[in-house]
UniProtKB/TrEMBL annotation:
Pfam families, per database record: SusD-like_3, SusD_RagB
Family in the record: Belongs to the SusD family.
Native source organism of the sequence: Hymenobacter jeongseonensis
Protein name (record): RagB/SusD family nutrient uptake outer membrane protein
UniProt xrefs under InterPro entries: SusD-like_N, SusD_RagB_dom, TPR-like_helical_dom_sf
Record carries keyword DNA damage: no
Domain SusD-like N-terminal residue range list: 95-234
Amino acid sequence: MNFRQLATRSALLLCLGLTVGACDDAINVEPSNSVSSDTGFTTKEDAAAGLLGAYDAIQSAEYLGLAFPTMADLISGDIRHLGTFVTTYGVIGLNQTLPDNIQVGNTWNAIYSAISRANYLLQESEKISDPAFPKLATQAQARALRALSYMNLLALWGGKPEGYGYNGGLGVPLRLSPTTAIGPETAAIPRSSEAEVATAIRADLDFAIANLTPGAGNRVTKSSALALRARFELRMRNYAEALSFANQVTPLANFATSAPTGATAPDALWQLFYSNTDQSQYAFYWYPAPGGRNEFDPGTSIAAAHPAGDLRLPINVVSAPTTITVAGAPFALSAGTTQKYYRTSSRDDRFNVVRYAEVVLTIAEAAAQTGDLATATNNLNIIRTRAGLAPTTAVTPDELVADILLQRRLEFAYEGMYWFDLRRTNMVQTALPTYTQPFRNLFPIPLREVQLTNNLIAQNEGY
Protein backbone atom coordinates (compact mmCIF):
# COMPACT_ATOMS: atom_id res chain seq x y z
CA MET A 1 0.00 0.00 0.00
CA ASN A 2 1.38 3.40 -1.03
CA PHE A 3 0.58 5.67 1.89
CA ARG A 4 1.62 8.90 0.20
CA GLN A 5 -0.50 8.30 -2.88
CA LEU A 6 -3.55 7.32 -0.87
CA ALA A 7 -3.11 10.07 1.71
CA THR A 8 -2.98 13.11 -0.53
CA ARG A 9 -6.49 14.23 0.33
CA SER A 10 -5.49 14.38 3.98
CA ALA A 11 -2.40 16.54 3.51
CA LEU A 12 -4.35 19.34 5.10
CA LEU A 13 -1.96 22.30 5.33
CA LEU A 14 -3.89 23.16 8.46
CA CYS A 15 -1.36 25.32 10.21
CA LEU A 16 -2.09 28.31 7.98
CA GLY A 17 -5.77 27.60 7.25
CA LEU A 18 -5.18 28.48 3.59
CA THR A 19 -8.09 29.66 1.43
CA VAL A 20 -8.34 30.75 -2.19
CA GLY A 21 -10.62 33.49 -3.55
CA ALA A 22 -11.61 34.09 -7.16
CA CYS A 23 -14.18 36.10 -9.07
CA ASP A 24 -14.91 33.23 -11.40
CA ASP A 25 -16.79 30.37 -9.76
CA ALA A 26 -15.29 28.03 -12.35
CA ILE A 27 -11.88 28.29 -10.72
CA ASN A 28 -13.05 28.73 -7.13
CA VAL A 29 -13.21 24.99 -6.61
CA GLU A 30 -12.15 23.02 -3.57
CA PRO A 31 -9.03 21.01 -4.55
CA SER A 32 -9.79 17.32 -4.92
CA ASN A 33 -6.58 16.32 -3.19
CA SER A 34 -7.18 18.20 0.06
CA VAL A 35 -9.77 18.55 2.81
CA SER A 36 -10.77 22.01 3.98
CA SER A 37 -10.23 22.60 7.68
CA ASP A 38 -13.60 24.42 7.65
CA THR A 39 -15.42 21.36 6.34
CA GLY A 40 -13.38 18.69 8.03
CA PHE A 41 -14.05 14.96 7.74
CA THR A 42 -17.64 14.01 6.97
CA THR A 43 -17.39 10.38 5.83
CA LYS A 44 -15.61 7.23 6.83
CA GLU A 45 -13.60 7.57 3.63
CA ASP A 46 -12.35 10.98 4.78
CA ALA A 47 -11.23 9.43 8.06
CA ALA A 48 -9.53 6.53 6.27
CA ALA A 49 -7.59 8.99 4.13
CA GLY A 50 -6.77 11.01 7.23
CA LEU A 51 -5.39 7.91 8.92
CA LEU A 52 -3.20 7.20 5.91
CA GLY A 53 -2.00 10.79 6.13
CA ALA A 54 -1.08 10.25 9.78
CA TYR A 55 0.95 7.17 8.86
CA ASP A 56 2.54 9.03 5.96
CA ALA A 57 3.77 11.76 8.31
CA ILE A 58 5.91 9.34 10.32
CA GLN A 59 7.35 7.93 7.07
CA SER A 60 8.87 11.33 6.21
CA ALA A 61 12.59 11.34 5.44
CA GLU A 62 12.90 13.95 8.19
CA TYR A 63 11.40 11.49 10.68
CA LEU A 64 11.38 7.67 10.68
CA GLY A 65 12.05 7.61 6.96
CA LEU A 66 15.71 8.43 7.72
CA ALA A 67 16.58 11.31 10.03
CA PHE A 68 15.38 10.34 13.51
CA PRO A 69 17.00 6.88 13.83
CA THR A 70 20.04 8.05 11.88
CA MET A 71 20.71 10.98 14.22
CA ALA A 72 20.50 8.62 17.19
CA ASP A 73 22.93 6.15 15.61
CA LEU A 74 25.33 8.90 14.54
CA ILE A 75 25.66 10.34 18.02
CA SER A 76 26.04 6.84 19.51
CA GLY A 77 28.90 6.09 17.10
CA ASP A 78 27.21 3.11 15.45
CA ILE A 79 27.06 5.12 12.22
CA ARG A 80 30.05 7.05 10.89
CA HIS A 81 29.44 10.14 8.79
CA LEU A 82 31.68 10.55 5.75
CA GLY A 83 29.54 12.53 3.31
CA THR A 84 28.97 16.18 2.54
CA PHE A 85 26.32 17.10 5.09
CA VAL A 86 28.99 18.12 7.57
CA THR A 87 27.03 20.97 9.19
CA THR A 88 24.03 18.78 9.97
CA TYR A 89 24.65 15.02 10.19
CA GLY A 90 28.41 15.55 10.49
CA VAL A 91 28.34 17.60 13.69
CA ILE A 92 25.70 15.31 15.19
CA GLY A 93 28.15 12.44 14.71
CA LEU A 94 30.79 14.47 16.58
CA ASN A 95 28.38 15.25 19.45
CA GLN A 96 28.79 18.96 18.73
CA THR A 97 25.18 19.69 17.81
CA LEU A 98 24.07 23.31 18.13
CA PRO A 99 20.55 24.75 18.41
CA ASP A 100 20.71 26.11 14.85
CA ASN A 101 21.35 22.67 13.30
CA ILE A 102 18.94 22.55 10.38
CA GLN A 103 18.45 18.79 10.54
CA VAL A 104 17.54 18.90 14.23
CA GLY A 105 14.97 21.60 13.47
CA ASN A 106 13.56 19.71 10.52
CA THR A 107 13.09 16.54 12.56
CA TRP A 108 11.47 18.42 15.44
CA ASN A 109 9.01 19.96 12.95
CA ALA A 110 8.34 16.63 11.24
CA ILE A 111 7.45 14.97 14.54
CA TYR A 112 5.07 17.76 15.48
CA SER A 113 3.54 17.59 12.00
CA ALA A 114 2.82 13.90 12.64
CA ILE A 115 1.25 14.79 15.99
CA SER A 116 -0.89 17.49 14.33
CA ARG A 117 -2.28 15.03 11.79
CA ALA A 118 -3.15 12.55 14.52
CA ASN A 119 -4.79 15.29 16.58
CA TYR A 120 -6.93 16.44 13.66
CA LEU A 121 -8.04 12.91 12.86
CA LEU A 122 -9.00 12.33 16.49
CA GLN A 123 -11.08 15.52 16.56
CA GLU A 124 -12.81 15.01 13.23
CA SER A 125 -13.52 11.31 13.67
CA GLU A 126 -15.84 12.17 16.53
CA LYS A 127 -18.18 13.85 14.02
CA ILE A 128 -18.71 10.76 11.86
CA SER A 129 -21.86 8.83 12.78
CA ASP A 130 -21.77 6.20 10.03
CA PRO A 131 -22.24 2.83 11.79
CA ALA A 132 -19.84 1.28 9.27
CA PHE A 133 -17.02 3.58 10.40
CA PRO A 134 -14.51 1.70 12.63
CA LYS A 135 -14.16 4.67 14.96
CA LEU A 136 -12.43 3.01 17.89
CA ALA A 137 -9.87 1.18 15.74
CA THR A 138 -9.15 4.36 13.78
CA GLN A 139 -8.73 6.44 16.91
CA ALA A 140 -6.63 3.71 18.52
CA GLN A 141 -4.15 3.80 15.64
CA ALA A 142 -4.05 7.61 15.69
CA ARG A 143 -3.39 7.65 19.42
CA ALA A 144 -0.64 5.04 19.08
CA LEU A 145 1.01 7.17 16.38
CA ARG A 146 0.77 10.22 18.64
CA ALA A 147 2.21 8.28 21.57
CA LEU A 148 5.16 7.08 19.48
CA SER A 149 5.89 10.65 18.42
CA TYR A 150 5.87 11.93 21.99
CA MET A 151 8.07 9.01 23.02
CA ASN A 152 10.53 10.06 20.34
CA LEU A 153 10.44 13.72 21.34
CA LEU A 154 11.22 12.79 24.95
CA ALA A 155 13.90 10.37 23.77
CA LEU A 156 15.99 13.08 22.04
CA TRP A 157 15.04 16.27 23.87
CA GLY A 158 13.66 15.22 27.25
CA GLY A 159 14.56 13.68 30.58
CA LYS A 160 17.80 14.54 32.37
CA PRO A 161 21.46 13.95 31.45
CA GLU A 162 21.47 10.79 33.57
CA GLY A 163 18.43 9.34 31.84
CA TYR A 164 14.64 9.24 31.88
CA GLY A 165 12.04 9.05 34.62
CA TYR A 166 13.91 11.08 37.24
CA ASN A 167 12.27 13.78 39.34
CA GLY A 168 12.41 17.08 37.50
CA GLY A 169 12.86 15.49 34.09
CA LEU A 170 12.33 17.85 31.17
CA GLY A 171 9.46 17.40 28.76
CA VAL A 172 8.36 19.01 25.51
CA PRO A 173 5.37 21.16 24.48
CA LEU A 174 2.33 18.90 24.80
CA ARG A 175 -0.33 19.50 22.15
CA LEU A 176 -3.31 17.15 22.24
CA SER A 177 -5.67 19.15 20.02
CA PRO A 178 -5.23 20.21 16.39
CA THR A 179 -4.10 23.56 15.04
CA THR A 180 -6.40 24.54 12.16
CA ALA A 181 -6.07 28.32 12.01
CA ILE A 182 -3.76 31.08 13.18
CA GLY A 183 -4.92 32.31 16.58
CA PRO A 184 -5.32 30.75 20.02
CA GLU A 185 -4.77 27.26 18.61
CA THR A 186 -1.33 28.18 17.31
CA ALA A 187 -0.24 30.26 20.28
CA ALA A 188 3.05 29.16 21.77
CA ILE A 189 2.91 26.93 24.82
CA PRO A 190 5.73 26.13 27.24
CA ARG A 191 7.29 22.74 27.73
CA SER A 192 5.35 20.32 29.87
CA SER A 193 7.25 18.21 32.38
CA GLU A 194 8.50 14.77 31.42
CA ALA A 195 5.97 13.29 33.84
CA GLU A 196 3.07 15.12 32.14
CA VAL A 197 4.12 13.94 28.70
CA ALA A 198 4.56 10.40 30.07
CA THR A 199 0.98 10.44 31.37
CA ALA A 200 -0.30 11.35 27.90
CA ILE A 201 1.82 8.63 26.28
CA ARG A 202 0.50 5.96 28.61
CA ALA A 203 -3.12 7.05 28.10
CA ASP A 204 -2.76 6.89 24.32
CA LEU A 205 -1.09 3.49 24.30
CA ASP A 206 -3.57 2.04 26.79
CA PHE A 207 -6.43 3.17 24.53
CA ALA A 208 -4.70 1.56 21.54
CA ILE A 209 -4.13 -1.69 23.42
CA ALA A 210 -7.80 -1.83 24.45
CA ASN A 211 -9.16 -1.22 20.95
CA LEU A 212 -6.86 -3.10 18.58
CA THR A 213 -6.32 -6.77 17.81
CA PRO A 214 -3.02 -8.70 17.82
CA GLY A 215 -1.00 -9.06 14.66
CA ALA A 216 1.81 -7.67 12.55
CA GLY A 217 2.16 -5.60 9.38
CA ASN A 218 2.25 -2.02 8.20
CA ARG A 219 -0.30 -0.76 10.72
CA VAL A 220 -0.24 -0.46 14.50
CA THR A 221 -1.78 -3.51 16.18
CA LYS A 222 -2.37 -4.51 19.77
CA SER A 223 0.92 -6.44 19.61
CA SER A 224 2.97 -3.42 18.53
CA ALA A 225 1.14 -1.10 20.94
CA LEU A 226 1.96 -3.47 23.82
CA ALA A 227 5.58 -3.58 22.67
CA LEU A 228 5.72 0.22 22.58
CA ARG A 229 4.27 0.40 26.10
CA ALA A 230 6.93 -2.07 27.25
CA ARG A 231 9.64 -0.02 25.48
CA PHE A 232 8.49 3.13 27.22
CA GLU A 233 8.38 1.58 30.71
CA LEU A 234 11.84 0.07 30.18
CA ARG A 235 13.12 3.49 29.16
CA MET A 236 11.55 5.03 32.26
CA ARG A 237 13.14 2.28 34.41
CA ASN A 238 9.79 0.84 35.48
CA TYR A 239 10.97 -2.74 35.07
CA ALA A 240 7.99 -4.58 36.54
CA GLU A 241 5.65 -2.66 34.24
CA ALA A 242 7.89 -3.27 31.24
CA LEU A 243 7.89 -7.00 31.99
CA SER A 244 4.10 -7.08 32.35
CA PHE A 245 3.41 -5.41 29.00
CA ALA A 246 6.08 -7.35 27.11
CA ASN A 247 4.67 -10.64 28.40
CA GLN A 248 1.27 -9.74 26.92
CA VAL A 249 2.59 -9.57 23.34
CA THR A 250 1.45 -12.58 21.34
CA PRO A 251 4.60 -14.64 20.65
CA LEU A 252 5.70 -15.09 17.06
CA ALA A 253 5.73 -18.70 15.95
CA ASN A 254 9.16 -20.06 15.02
CA PHE A 255 10.92 -16.87 16.10
CA ALA A 256 13.69 -18.74 17.90
CA THR A 257 14.62 -20.67 14.75
CA SER A 258 14.22 -17.82 12.25
CA ALA A 259 17.21 -16.20 10.57
CA PRO A 260 18.70 -13.05 12.07
CA THR A 261 17.11 -9.89 10.73
CA GLY A 262 18.93 -8.62 7.69
CA ALA A 263 17.58 -7.93 4.23
CA THR A 264 14.24 -9.23 5.51
CA ALA A 265 12.70 -8.92 8.97
CA PRO A 266 10.74 -12.07 9.82
CA ASP A 267 10.16 -10.81 13.36
CA ALA A 268 8.74 -7.39 12.47
CA LEU A 269 5.58 -6.50 14.36
CA TRP A 270 5.26 -3.12 12.65
CA GLN A 271 7.13 -1.89 9.59
CA LEU A 272 6.99 1.21 7.44
CA PHE A 273 6.49 0.17 3.82
CA TYR A 274 7.98 2.06 0.88
CA SER A 275 7.79 1.75 -2.90
CA ASN A 276 9.34 3.09 -6.09
CA THR A 277 6.97 6.07 -5.96
CA ASP A 278 7.04 6.46 -2.16
CA GLN A 279 10.75 5.98 -1.69
CA SER A 280 12.83 5.06 1.33
CA GLN A 281 15.99 7.13 1.69
CA TYR A 282 18.08 4.63 3.66
CA ALA A 283 19.89 2.84 0.83
CA PHE A 284 20.42 6.14 -1.01
CA TYR A 285 22.30 7.55 1.99
CA TRP A 286 24.20 4.34 2.76
CA TYR A 287 25.35 3.26 -0.70
CA PRO A 288 27.83 4.90 -3.11
CA ALA A 289 27.05 5.95 -6.66
CA PRO A 290 25.45 4.80 -8.79
CA GLY A 291 22.29 4.69 -6.75
CA GLY A 292 23.44 6.47 -3.62
CA ARG A 293 25.40 9.32 -2.07
CA ASN A 294 27.45 7.29 0.48
CA GLU A 295 26.76 9.63 3.38
CA PHE A 296 27.11 6.90 6.05
CA ASP A 297 29.28 3.90 6.90
CA PRO A 298 29.23 1.54 9.89
CA GLY A 299 30.82 3.07 12.99
CA THR A 300 34.44 2.31 13.76
CA SER A 301 33.64 0.07 16.75
CA ILE A 302 30.54 -1.85 15.79
CA ALA A 303 32.22 -4.66 13.84
CA ALA A 304 34.53 -5.48 16.76
CA ALA A 305 31.56 -5.49 19.14
CA HIS A 306 30.26 -8.72 17.56
CA PRO A 307 31.38 -11.95 19.27
CA ALA A 308 33.14 -14.53 17.13
CA GLY A 309 30.69 -16.42 14.94
CA ASP A 310 27.92 -13.83 15.26
CA LEU A 311 25.63 -14.27 12.23
CA ARG A 312 24.65 -10.61 12.46
CA LEU A 313 28.15 -9.33 11.64
CA PRO A 314 27.94 -9.75 7.83
CA ILE A 315 24.44 -8.27 8.00
CA ASN A 316 25.44 -5.20 9.98
CA VAL A 317 28.84 -4.60 8.38
CA VAL A 318 29.49 -5.47 4.74
CA SER A 319 33.29 -5.65 4.62
CA ALA A 320 33.75 -6.65 0.96
CA PRO A 321 31.67 -6.48 -2.23
CA THR A 322 29.07 -9.23 -1.96
CA THR A 323 26.08 -10.43 -3.97
CA ILE A 324 23.01 -11.67 -2.13
CA THR A 325 19.81 -13.15 -3.50
CA VAL A 326 16.49 -12.08 -2.04
CA ALA A 327 13.23 -13.51 -3.38
CA GLY A 328 15.10 -14.75 -6.44
CA ALA A 329 16.63 -11.38 -7.31
CA PRO A 330 20.38 -10.64 -6.98
CA PHE A 331 21.58 -7.53 -5.19
CA ALA A 332 25.13 -6.18 -5.11
CA LEU A 333 26.33 -5.07 -1.69
CA SER A 334 29.20 -2.57 -1.46
CA ALA A 335 31.90 -2.62 1.21
CA GLY A 336 31.21 -0.21 4.05
CA THR A 337 27.45 -0.68 3.86
CA THR A 338 24.80 -2.85 5.51
CA GLN A 339 22.37 -5.55 4.46
CA LYS A 340 19.57 -3.85 6.36
CA TYR A 341 19.17 -1.21 3.67
CA TYR A 342 20.36 -2.10 0.18
CA ARG A 343 17.64 -1.57 -2.44
CA THR A 344 19.22 1.36 -4.27
CA SER A 345 17.16 0.95 -7.46
CA SER A 346 13.63 0.47 -6.14
CA ARG A 347 14.29 2.29 -2.85
CA ASP A 348 11.64 0.28 -1.09
CA ASP A 349 13.61 -0.87 1.97
CA ARG A 350 11.26 -1.18 4.91
CA PHE A 351 11.96 0.38 8.29
CA ASN A 352 11.32 -1.65 11.44
CA VAL A 353 9.39 0.35 14.02
CA VAL A 354 8.82 -2.60 16.38
CA ARG A 355 10.29 -6.11 16.25
CA TYR A 356 9.59 -9.17 18.33
CA ALA A 357 13.30 -9.45 19.14
CA GLU A 358 12.88 -6.25 21.15
CA VAL A 359 10.05 -7.84 23.12
CA VAL A 360 12.22 -10.86 23.96
CA LEU A 361 15.11 -8.66 25.09
CA THR A 362 12.78 -6.43 27.10
CA ILE A 363 11.53 -9.49 28.95
CA ALA A 364 15.12 -10.55 29.56
CA GLU A 365 16.28 -7.17 30.86
CA ALA A 366 13.20 -6.44 32.96
CA ALA A 367 13.38 -9.93 34.46
CA ALA A 368 17.06 -9.47 35.33
CA GLN A 369 16.30 -6.12 36.94
CA THR A 370 13.50 -7.62 39.04
CA GLY A 371 15.42 -10.69 40.22
CA ASP A 372 14.07 -13.42 37.91
CA LEU A 373 17.44 -14.54 36.56
CA ALA A 374 16.11 -17.78 35.05
CA THR A 375 13.65 -15.92 32.82
CA ALA A 376 16.32 -13.37 31.95
CA THR A 377 18.78 -16.08 30.95
CA ASN A 378 16.24 -18.07 28.91
CA ASN A 379 15.14 -15.07 26.87
CA LEU A 380 18.68 -13.80 26.37
CA ASN A 381 19.69 -17.21 25.06
CA ILE A 382 16.85 -17.18 22.52
CA ILE A 383 18.48 -14.15 20.92
CA ARG A 384 22.01 -15.52 21.24
CA THR A 385 21.08 -18.88 19.70
CA ARG A 386 19.29 -17.17 16.82
CA ALA A 387 22.50 -15.19 16.20
CA GLY A 388 24.63 -18.33 16.14
CA LEU A 389 26.16 -17.78 19.60
CA ALA A 390 26.61 -20.16 22.51
CA PRO A 391 24.46 -19.68 25.63
CA THR A 392 25.43 -16.78 27.83
CA THR A 393 28.04 -17.23 30.54
CA ALA A 394 26.56 -14.35 32.55
CA VAL A 395 25.44 -15.28 36.05
CA THR A 396 24.81 -12.13 38.08
CA PRO A 397 22.12 -9.54 37.33
CA ASP A 398 24.75 -7.00 36.26
CA GLU A 399 26.43 -9.51 33.93
CA LEU A 400 23.11 -10.47 32.39
CA VAL A 401 22.10 -6.86 31.81
CA ALA A 402 25.48 -6.12 30.20
CA ASP A 403 25.04 -9.03 27.78
CA ILE A 404 21.43 -8.05 27.07
CA LEU A 405 22.48 -4.49 26.23
CA LEU A 406 25.16 -5.80 23.86
CA GLN A 407 22.61 -8.03 22.12
CA ARG A 408 20.29 -5.05 21.77
CA ARG A 409 23.06 -3.00 20.16
CA LEU A 410 23.87 -5.71 17.62
CA GLU A 411 20.29 -6.84 17.01
CA PHE A 412 18.96 -3.33 16.32
CA ALA A 413 21.97 -1.84 14.53
CA TYR A 414 20.97 1.18 12.41
CA GLU A 415 17.41 1.05 13.74
CA GLY A 416 17.97 3.95 16.14
CA MET A 417 18.02 2.12 19.50
CA TYR A 418 21.56 2.15 20.93
CA TRP A 419 21.74 5.84 21.90
CA PHE A 420 18.55 5.60 23.90
CA ASP A 421 19.84 2.48 25.65
CA LEU A 422 22.96 4.42 26.64
CA ARG A 423 20.85 7.31 27.88
CA ARG A 424 18.34 5.28 29.89
CA THR A 425 21.11 3.28 31.60
CA ASN A 426 23.23 6.40 32.27
CA MET A 427 26.09 4.87 30.26
CA VAL A 428 26.76 7.63 27.73
CA GLN A 429 29.92 8.94 29.37
CA THR A 430 31.13 5.40 30.16
CA ALA A 431 30.62 3.95 26.68
CA LEU A 432 31.72 7.14 24.92
CA PRO A 433 34.42 8.64 27.16
CA THR A 434 35.18 11.48 24.75
CA TYR A 435 31.69 12.83 25.47
CA THR A 436 32.73 14.92 28.46
CA GLN A 437 29.77 17.33 28.46
CA PRO A 438 26.75 15.50 29.94
CA PHE A 439 24.37 18.30 28.98
CA ARG A 440 24.78 17.11 25.39
CA ASN A 441 23.06 13.85 26.31
CA LEU A 442 19.93 15.87 25.50
CA PHE A 443 19.66 17.39 22.03
CA PRO A 444 19.22 21.17 21.81
CA ILE A 445 15.74 22.57 21.32
CA PRO A 446 15.75 24.09 17.79
CA LEU A 447 16.80 27.73 17.98
CA ARG A 448 13.78 28.89 16.01
CA GLU A 449 11.40 27.44 18.64
CA VAL A 450 13.16 29.34 21.41
CA GLN A 451 13.42 32.62 19.53
CA LEU A 452 9.90 32.77 18.09
CA THR A 453 8.38 32.06 21.51
CA ASN A 454 10.57 34.62 23.30
CA ASN A 455 12.04 31.81 25.41
CA LEU A 456 8.61 30.48 26.44
CA ILE A 457 9.92 27.19 25.11
CA ALA A 458 13.04 27.00 27.26
CA GLN A 459 16.31 25.76 25.84
CA ASN A 460 17.95 22.68 27.33
CA GLU A 461 20.60 23.68 29.83
CA GLY A 462 24.13 24.15 28.46
CA TYR A 463 23.20 25.18 24.92
